[in-house]
Specification:
Blueprint (H helix, E strand, L loop, with lengths): L1 H23 L5 E6 L2 H18 L3 E6 L3 H13 L7 E5 L3 H6 L18 H8 E2 L2 E2 L2 E7 L1 E5 H6 L9 H16 L6 E4 L6 H13 L5 E2 L3 E2 L4 H15 L8 H4 L2 H9 L3 E6 L2 H6 L10 E4 L13 E8 L6 H11 L2 H11 L2 E2 L8 H6 L2 H10 L10 H16 L5 H18 L4
Parallel strand pairs: 1-2, 1-3, 8-11
Antiparallel strand pairs: 3-13, 4-5, 6-13, 6-14, 7-11, 7-12, 9-10
Helix pairs in contact: 8-9, 8-17, 17-18
The protein binds alpha-D-glucopyranose.
Length: 427
């Protein structure tokens, strides 16, 4: 009996040992670093499973948040340390130039990845460094105005606002009536927290007032009168007959803004195209009630949309480059790009998807959006852009928080950007 027991126990021991040993043996796994809303990450999980089924290559998803600045920090940590993971990752159009200039990205063409099928202007702007292809646009973003179609109709308006003053007038008329049923209801929600998204919104306000950040590529023109006026308008949205919530400058990033509108608590919303699919999801409280339009301008026809978007790249330090190339090819293939558009409402980087019948039927707005994206305003394409953005974030935020006037804050931003450029010896 005792012997039997011993025999049984040693069997169990051996079995556990084998399990432990095989478990410890590391599987060669590709790593893909990506951020986004929960539905986007879930979608990527599904895509990666199909990729593994097709190719036999295992991929681990390294999840990031939606916040571009935080995503950049995570990516820099890995690249600065020359770590082999992540092999593949997504970079924001705002800072892909800086990372490329650090020589941390693997040129792609020798792996049979080419540029022909993508928007040539975007490839030129963001995905080439010293004439070599270092990335591909997985999707293109542009700022859009979302509005409650049902409420516009209910309150007797024929269409969405074309100018910022129309937006204010409409909100001032609609909000008090809607608040009788919903005390949480606001006029306009937008990304006003101190992070990269604030700069995207600011660029839209400034450009649509006839201003902007730079004259050409190297001369900052931040404290010009058009920008001061635009910043005053942004401040007044929150403080003077407020139509934007008081936490606009403390909390509002993409997802906070989207949830606000999604839950039926706002008339107008500024967001990227990803919000469209979510607002129209089966369980969305605003399903079927939402319209999209170009953002208003300070004058009719002066709308401006910031160019955003995320680009897929391979790390120079990857130890699985051929497998990494297969993943990039898969995620940028026409069928997957079509899926991104159909399931997430994203705007593909591939041109052919915009002609696809099924895509156009599912998302008729895509045709008009193509126009918005063609005219989208890029953030300054300079390797030190992130420093410019940090300075602007600090001072625009101070003006929104009433810690400085628009004049004071833009004056300070102008001189700090000038100093920074001088200290880097940039001409
Ligand atoms: C979106 C855009 C990106 C931008 C970011 C700001 O992710 O695609 O370009 O920098 O929003 O929050």
């Amino acid at each position: 009996m005792k012997q039997k027991m011993l025999f049984f126990l040693s069997g169990v021991f051996l079995f556990v040992l084998v399990l432990l040993l095989t478990g410890c043996q590391e599987q060669p796994r590709l790593t893909f670093m990506v951020g986004g809303a929960p539905n986007e990450l879930a979608f990527f999980e599904g895509l990666l499973a199909s990729f593994t089924a097709e190719t036999g290559i295992e991929v681990a998803l390294i999840r990031q948040s939606t916040d571009s600045t935080q995503r950049k920090q995570g990516i820099l940590l890995a690249l600065r340390g020359h770590r082999p993971d992540p092999d593949v990752m997504l970079l924001d159009v705002a800072w892909i130039g800086q990372i490329a200039a650090s020589n941390w990205l693997e040129p792609l063409e020798s792996y049979g990845i080419n540029r022909e099928d993508y928007f040539a202007s975007i490839i030129k702007l963001a995905d080439t460094y010293e004439n070599r292809l270092i990335g591909l646009p997985l999707y293109i973003d542009g700022g859009l105005l979302y509005f409650r179609r049902d409420l516009l109709q209910k309150h007797g308006f024929a269409g969405p606002p074309q100018t910022w003053s129309e937006l204010r007038q409409m909100a001032e008329q609609i909000v008090p009536v809607e608040r009788e049923q919903n005390p949480n209801f606001w006029g306009y929600v937008w990304q006003g927290a101190q992070y990269e998204g604030l700069i995207c919104n600011t660029l839209e306000f400034f450009t649509s007032a006839g201003g902007g950040f730079f004259n050409g590529t190297a001369t900052p023109v931040i404290d010009q009168p058009a920008n001061i006026e635009a910043l005053r308008y942004m401040n007044e949205l929150i403080h003077k007959q407020p139509i934007s919530p008081p936490n606009t400058f403390t909390d509002m990033k993409e997802e906070e803004v989207r949830m606000h509108f999604h839950n039926g608590n706002a008339m107008f919303e500024r967001n990227w195209p990803y919000a469209w699919g979510l607002h129209n999801a089966v369980d969305s409280p605003v399903k079927g009630k939402v319209g999209i339009a170009p953002l208003p301008g300070f004058m009719t026809g002066k709308s401006a949309s910031t160019l955003g978007g995320w680009h897929i790249v391979m790390s120079k330090f990857s130890d699985k480059k051929p497998e990494a190339a297969s993943l990039i090819k898969y995620l940028t293939s026409a069928p997957v790009q079509k899926k991104l558009s159909l399931k997430l409402g994203w705007n593909p980087g591939r041109v052919d998807v915009y002609e696809d019948e099924e895509v156009l039927t599912a998302n008729p707005a895509l045709k008009d959006l193509k126009q918005v994206f063609n005219n989208a305003v890029p953030r300054p394409i300079i390797p030190y852009y992130s420093n410019v953005s940090q300075i602007l974030q600090k001072h625009v935020s101070a003006a929104l928080a009433n810690r400085a006037t628009p004049e004071e804050s833009l004056k300070k931003a102008q001189s700090e950007v000038q100093e920074m450029i001088k200290s880097y010896g940039i001409r």
